[in-house]
Amino acid sequence: MIRGDSVLRLRRALAWFIDFALVAAAAALLAILTFHRITALVTDVPELATKGGLDLVTSRGDVIGASEHLGLSLWDKVILDVEEAFGALVVVTFLYQWACIALLGRTLGKGLLGLRVTPRLSRHALRRAAVTTAADVAVYALACVLLIEAQFGLSLLVWALAVVLFVVNALTVVFPGRRSLADRLAGTSVVGAFQRAHSSPVGSVPQG
Hints:
By secondary structure, the chain is mainly α. It has seven helices and two strands; from the N terminus they run H-H-H-H-E-H-H-H-E.
């Protein structure tokens, strides 16, 4: 029985790595897209320069102030592009988790490893997707955004919270029922694909 639990935990861990690899792939694509968006800002420089020229004409000789405004306009656009990429990653991760569980009862990783989430009702899928996204991506993304916004102290606190949430989501496996935090808050369990819903759930890892 102990050996069986270990095998099932390993299957769930591998399923999590597959799902997280998909999230990482989405993050890479968003990073490439964001790089191209930032590069494309070069085409907006004439527009910004025109605004900067108008500021220069009306600056009453304050050349430094006018050029500083031009630079800040460009910088604000870059920051907005990066923050939008983090936001998109959170949304994509949530939709992936929610849609897969609500429609199929399993994510791609779980399907490949012969696992499923039960029950798969919409309210359970919604809560599970929200907790999983928060533990794996959302809180880290918020910490990064705060860092970009130069909120260093708050960013550090949020990073600490992200680590704690990730670890707690994993360590709840040692509690009775061996369910992740996402499972407990959503009222779900992860079982074998052909296992009956009331059977003992599989061992849990982050995102589960």
